[in-house]
Amino acid sequence: MLKLNDISVKLGDFSLNDISLQVPSGSYLTVLGLSGAGKTVLLEIIAGLIKPDKGDVYINNQKITHIPVQKRKTGLVYQDLCLFPHKNVKSNIAYALKNRKMSRGDMNKRIDELLQQTGISHLKHRYPESLSGGEAQRVALARTLASDPKILLLDEPLASLDVKLKAELRSLLRKINETGKTIVHVTHDYTEAVTLSSHIAVIENGNLVQTGAPEEIFRNPKSEFVARLSGYKNLFPCMIDEKAYNGIKRAVLKNKVEVFFSGNSDVKGQGFIIVPSEDIIISEKEISSSALNHFKGTIKKLFVHGSSIDMIIDAGIDFSVTITKKSQRELGLNPGKVVWLNFKASAVRFIDK
Amino acid sequence: MFRNWKINILFIALGGFILLFIIAPLVGVYLKTSFEDYSATIADEEVRRSIGLTLYASMAGTVLFGIGAIPLAYILARRSFPFKGIVNGIIDLPVIIPHSAAGIAILGVVSRSTLVGQAGESVGISFVGGVAGIVVAMAFVSIPFLINAARDGFAAVPERLEKAALNLGASPLKVFFTISLPLAKKHIITGLTMMWARGLSEFGAVVIIAYHPMVTPVLIWERFASYGLQYARPIAAVFMAVCLIIFIAMRLLTRNTYNVKA
To answer: Which of A43, B12, B51, B191 has the CA that lies 20 to 30 A from B206?
Structure first.
């Protein structure tokens, strides 16, 4: 279990204020916030690289606030990875193992295991400067896992990767988490948070503004900041129907809601779909149009930001729809009203699990 | 970039003049020395002993004082503390003050009437007129080269690499020896070489502490003052050649050393 108790720190103009949170062992916690919100500082506090002015850090009910960095067993992977440039991949990983009294034979065995687990056995003798972003990320993970941390602290691990590598690395992180390793993952990307986490903590200007399960946070944002941070509000876990009809696939969501989307034959199994809230058209009656997706639903809530309004509409699942104030007035879109939602299959994005 | 050919010609001419200014006197020394002079100089026992002593004393000073200078450079690169600017200034003092004055100042600390001098005598080390004094004088005037180079080297190592190493379970001392030091190696070796080179060439401070045993710069002076240019020039030529060979070798040895990208 990771527990932060009333953590505060002031660093120049920046401060973290009274951060308290608790996640059970084996959790996947995502700390979500804009850059400069204090996410990296929070990781450095957990790792012991920054001493908080106030408050305590506990791992498995043991207070570790005063334990020095090198004895904490918190594996921090920085965003820029910090691979040692003068050591090859094997020596980078061995560096962490050498700090745990181990025989040479055991060490080599463990290195091979880690290389295999992270899928980089072929890179064993390469130097960091010759590695691509995705490869370096895996080496950094392998090296940190080698130190046998009780908890894994990841600073924007997917930020610099392209879409395909992101999916591969997400699945690696999920596999690591499934071995029972608690992960704290810091990001500004809402999709990462939703697709990976069991718990989310949202940080704004050094304050913890909301914590909870992903569903809870995005279906019920406690502040406009949280609502806005969740750039894509309509992100749903789904199962993909194996068959494709002329390039159109069918995603089955919660409560048997079915969404059609454009996708080729290698899209299958489980994943997530995103329906951008700006791409949903609201009509008072059922309309015939080129859009494949039509749902009948009831307006539950309105959130006003400036000239636009976000509506939550229950159509078996909760959709978030962005409209202008003008159309809200003209159509009389108020809570309780029954409306139709329409969107094109091509507007739907799919994210591989 | 200047694309103007007039400026190019002007700058090349001015730059060429400066290069000539450095090279011409050195080449002149060699051209004016006959083969017989070389062989006589190399055969001269006193010359050989003085070159050996000079190389050794400067090397000893560099190694002994480097043990303290490198950690000091690390502290200056990594920590902030009150009066750090003053400390940085103090380190440059030996470069700024006249070296004969530096010799007088060192003499005030190591002469037989002082605590340091007496402590040395009690264990059989005499500074004044002894090798130990030469080592100290050489180190005094040359140590800024090492500290400044090592400090720049450590400053160029990203601090996060050290933090990452700590996080992987290494002790701070281990991090220093396995991460900071290897990554600053190129700068440090350059600094050591510069310190050694500067020590070799020292005349002013050394001559005040120890005229004897005679280091080569003092020997060159002595031959010049007693017998004239004819007799001093071959020693200068041989000594310069020895130094050049050593420094070219050092350059070649460290050429492929990893240099961290800041």
So the answer is: B191
